Amino acid sequence: MARFDSPTQWRLRNRILLMLALFALAFGGPFFAPLWEMSDLDPGLTIPMGVLGSLGSMLSWTLLAVWLFFFSYVPLKVRMVLLGLAVLYAALIDDIQLDSYRRPILHHRWQSRPGDVLTKYLEDQSPEPADDSLLDFTIDPVNDFPRFRGANGDGIVNPTELLDLKWGDANAPRKKWQHPCGGGFSALAVAGNVAVTLEQRGADEAIVCYDRYTGGQRWVYAYPAAFRHFTGHGPRATPTISDGRVYSLGATGHLVCVEGKSGKHLWTRNILDDAGAKAVTWGMTSSPLVVDGLVVVNAGIDPKANAGKAVIAYRAEDGEIAWASGTHPAAYSAALVATLAGRRQVVLFDDAGVGGYGLESGTELWRFPWPSQTDGNVSMPLTFKGDRVFISSETGKGCAMLRVQRKGEAFEAVELWANNYLCTRYSNPIRMGNAIYGLSSGYLVCLDIETGKRYWRSQQCYKNGQVIGVAGTVLVQTEDGEIVCVTADPRQLTVQARFKVFDERAWNTPALAGRWLYLRNEAEMACYELPLRE
């Protein structure tokens, strides 16, 4: 056995161990948070573990570089060559984004840009004529998907046709079309014979209408606006189809209304200007809620000059402000309408918590504090019978079930239960039967509605995907672009079927209209026809 008898040998040994430790931390640091989550440990420590791993990795790479260029015995010429190669490689990086674990996604200059791919695709296409008589924006309230998370905004679809979500090779979903699209995280709104989304096309945000059956572009309404962020560029919110019109909110605050059949511009407001607010970090994401002739969005406030107009309701007809109220910063959740404690109201999850607003005047009726730690209140609330409201947010905050109750004219929200079993982060949960299903830091989780008890947690991590519910099935779109069908059964997790759609990151929410499944990410979109039961 080798022995280290001299001080020189001991110093050599310690240097070797230090170098091995630095290499291990440099490569392994980014995996601290994923490994912590995979081990099903305390979610409250996931963020600190991620920060620790990232900082440790960056520090290790820095120390290794300093050692290589200033203290190593590597010949000077070799060091200069390595430095030159590093500078050259850095110059070849065109863009850097981060995945759900804050790990870098590099785009190099030799790779084709999604915008260039889209431009070439459009040049090769012959746009289908936008004949008013051919475009149908009529909403089937059962089968269509006219807004973010479906007709009811709860991610649940109950089509009239019996879908077969346990397909095999003989009856797998059939791809009807797939083609490039502009950037952003908007989903598709589907009604009649059209599918509408919001895209980043060059220096413009663009509301784009497609034929839902062929994928052909029907019309485009574009306006100057561009949002860039290290998590991804382009608009975030999904358009809403209502009464033959399309209402869309861009990442920089442009609320736009266009005529559905022609794409003709009807009115535009900038919600940040109207509210005297500051844009939130990841861009404005509040998909418009259209109800009772109003368009409701979450604009937020300027913390240094609170104008009290955090929630704004515009008249759908002409864009004039009907009411504006609220004193809390915006988050990334869309508003919904529900009847709680006998009062029909707007329910909104903002950066300070969840609250209810009178639909007629915007008066804040009740509030339950749930301040975000890392700007992470993203998911839409769920509402249930018994005046209950379910919220879930970032890692470390978890989820809670509330009950809204009334005493005379006063409302209040009380907590029924809370835990850390479901931390939805960027995704949205659904309710099927007596259970709640959602992605908790990427792992599919099933909770009991009454107690919050966790029935099961998936072994596979789907990362920051999205879920919708249909026909007793939880349909998961994973961040890696795969569709996975899981039986909605609290007793056990059973994967029914799966298929791959995209090779790039997919954060956009799926839309299901009848048997037609509409999917997109930042670079392309696709439509699949799901099989029917025999």
SSE inventory with pairings:
Blueprint: H1 7-28, H2 32-38, H3 46-71, H4 76-91, E1 93-98, E2 104-108, H5 114-124, E3 156-157, E4 174-180, E5 189-191, E6 194-201, E7 204-211, E8 217-224, E9 240-242, E10 245-249, E11 254-259, E12 265-270, H6 271-275, E13 289-291, E14 294-298, E15 311-315, E16 321-325, E17 336-340, E18 343-349, E19 353-358, E20 364-369, E21 382-384, E22 388-392, E23 399-407, E24 410-419, E25 430-432, E26 435-440, E27 443-448, E28 454-461, E29 466-470, E30 473-477, E31 482-487, E32 495-500, E33 511-513, E34 516-520, E35 524-529
Parallel strand pairs: 3-29
Antiparallel strand pairs: 1-2, 4-35, 5-6, 6-7, 7-8, 9-10, 10-11, 11-12, 13-14, 14-15, 15-16, 17-18, 18-19, 19-20, 21-22, 22-23, 23-24, 25-26, 26-27, 27-28, 29-30, 30-31, 31-32, 33-34, 34-35
Helix pairs in contact: 1-3, 2-3
Tally the helices: 6
Which structural category fits the helices and strands? alpha+beta
Task: Note the gap between the termini.
Answer: 72 Å
Strand content: 35-45%
Helix content: 10-25%
Tell me the radius of gyration. 25 Å
Mean pLDDT: 91
Strand order of the largest sheet: 3-29-30-31-32
| Major beta sheet summary | 5 strands, mixed
Poorly predicted ranges = none
How many beta strands in the DSSP annotation? 35
What report would you give on this structure?
- The chain is of the alpha+beta class.
- It has a domain at 7-91.
- The chain is 16% helix and 37% strand.
- The strands form nine sheets. It has a five-stranded mixed sheet with strand order 3-29-30-31-32, with no helix packed on it. The protein has a four-stranded antiparallel sheet with strand order 4-35-34-33.
- A hairpin with a 4-residue loop joins strand 30 (473-477) and strand 31 (482-487).
- The longest helix has 26 residues, at 46-71.
